[in-house]
What does this fold into?
Amino acid sequence: MNAPSITTTSSQDTAVPSRFNLGAALKDSAITALITLGLSIPILSYKTEQNGSDLFLRSRWELVAVICVGVFVLRLLMHAFLATRAARQAVPGPHQATEPVHAEPSAFQHVSKFAIPMFLGVALAFPAIIYLIQGSLNESRYWVDLGILILTYVMLGWGLNIVVGLAGLLDLGYVAFYAVGAYSYALLSTTFGLSFWICLPLAGILASFWGMILGFPVLRLRGDYLAIVTLAFGEIIRLVLINWVDLTNGGAGISSIPRVTFFGVPFTSGDDGFAALFGFDFNNMHRIIFLYYLILVLALVTNFVTMRLRKLPVGRAWEALREDEIACRSLGINTTNTKLTAFAIGAMFGGFAGSFFAVRQGFVSPESFNFLESAIILAIVVLGGMGSQIGVAIAAIVLVAGPEMLRNLTFLKAVFGESFDPNEYRLLLFGAGMVAMMVWRPRGLISEREPSVVLKERKAISGSLVKEGHG
Amino acid sequence: MRWQQDPVLDVQHLTMRFGGLVAINDLSFKAGRGDITALIGPNGAGKTTVFNCITGFYKPTEGMVALKKTDGTQFFLERLPGHHINWKGKVARTFQNIRMFSGMTVLENLLVAQHNSLMIASGFTFLGVLGVGGYRAAEKKAIERAKYWLEKTRLIDRADDPAGDLPYGDQRRLEIARAMCTDPVLLCLDEPAAGLNPRESLELNELLLSIRKDHGTSILLIEHDMSVVMQISDHVVVLDYGTKISDGTPSEVRNDPRVIAAYLGVDDEEVAKVEAEIGA
It folds into this structure.
């Protein structure tokens, strides 16, 4: 644990270039660019093209030039970055020298004070902001839809955060509860005609029931084994949904699920519709904006309850379970019940989100609940920083909105040619981003833990002390 | 002998086998109420196994572990489910290799120890989430109790630091404070003085004596540090190869030839004599 102090002293001994040596950096960058040139001549400079029966070579020297210049500039930037960082590290701050374990509160920590009210404000005003930017309701549809999608993932991330982040139980099948919630609403509303507001709590209860059913067999499992069983559970639910055709209509899914109503008032153009009742002109966007606020409220409820639970004995027991299960047992904590409540409450929020999904889409099919969904939700939690609410929200925005934004990078066609479609590289960039994140912030965006109770002074707990749990 | 008249813990014919290995062989001993009982023995004698049987981490193969409270109620610890041993049986323990909740603050560690009573106060979470009921007052009381133990273990200044940041000696004391927050009848300490310097083990002695004096908690401890064992314990039980070889006051045990033999080994002459006796 005291290793950092050793490294700071040793870094003074080694010859660290305290100033950026431009000449050497330029030389090295030029060499790198030359190597790139050498490599790209055989690979990139000519392309075979077929025109009818003729095969001919097309030279692409401009592409080679772009890449070489790019490599040169990047290499130069890397030198500049490393030199400044080395210079900064060569002189340790007094705090760093005496207390290596106490990392300074990170930039994120400072930002989060302003960030939370700002995020909340932006989230609340989002439809209005988009309306002002786009100028009309219909044109803002894409953005509000994107907002709904992001908030759904924020909510799912927060729900899974209870299981993975707080209790330290690795759950790869979280999408199963999302599916249970969605199908609960779909079936209850189409079969019995129950309204959304009755189905929402029912979906939550059913999902948490399934959470406990999953919980029982996996109580004794840890780590990789737990992950595999939860993964299997997610697949079982999906396969049951596909194959139990009598109940779920199989792969065709359930369609014409009743739309959401404004507490009983439907969003229709008729006389008893929302628009007529409140004296608006009918617009389909009213429903979308209502859905936006619905998921915002659901997500905030999830957050509120989680924050509350963290300060209650059950929340502390979850975190203690993540830290050391044996010590928990020696202190009289019933680890079985504690694990089951974590699964059940996490699953409940997944169920809420699922029934929202069903009411928003008006159609559910097993296709929506594949493993990739689980993986994305888990990625959101891990990238955000396990246990950190704001980190999970940021990660959800980045992971859901980021790939979506790539669709708009049409200007890249000017560089890579007309046939270049940035959309095809979405997953590649997604993966590269994850790798980069894990290199620079291996414990997630916000790894510090906030203590749940304070005697005198609130200190953030460095992520290096917080355990990830063993499942 | 207090441990004969008023035992808090009565271990009878305890046997623990792991496959063919007999870790504890027909062990019977008693720990007196209000006594500090030391369990000593060479490495691998089975001391920690005895602890694990008492605190429910192992289910003994044979035998009985009875805990008697002052009101006459008796718990058979080997029959209780693991978490009830602390909550109902009021037996708390520490670990040989410290088990802190290292990512939680010192104060949080002590609140986790009061989980069950806080759980009831929060209406098993249902009332607590809604913010009704007496949870707030109960939490305040729990914090007061934690503060008491932090002051007693001189950790009050580090209350808001993560437990993993504390130096080793502080972590040892914090583990004792955490165990004491569960308000135990019997406190089992697994090598509490391991890794402490002489000054720290002296402080530990004082802490243990004051725990016994002020709270009436009986203490059962495993220890290699003879300065701790001989100075503070009232009763010493010596184990070797899973069997009890000696049982008595510190001075009796110190002069017991079998104990000396187990710790220091015996002369070759004596080995030859014993071999002659048994005809080997």
In short: Residues 101-165 of chain B form one domain.
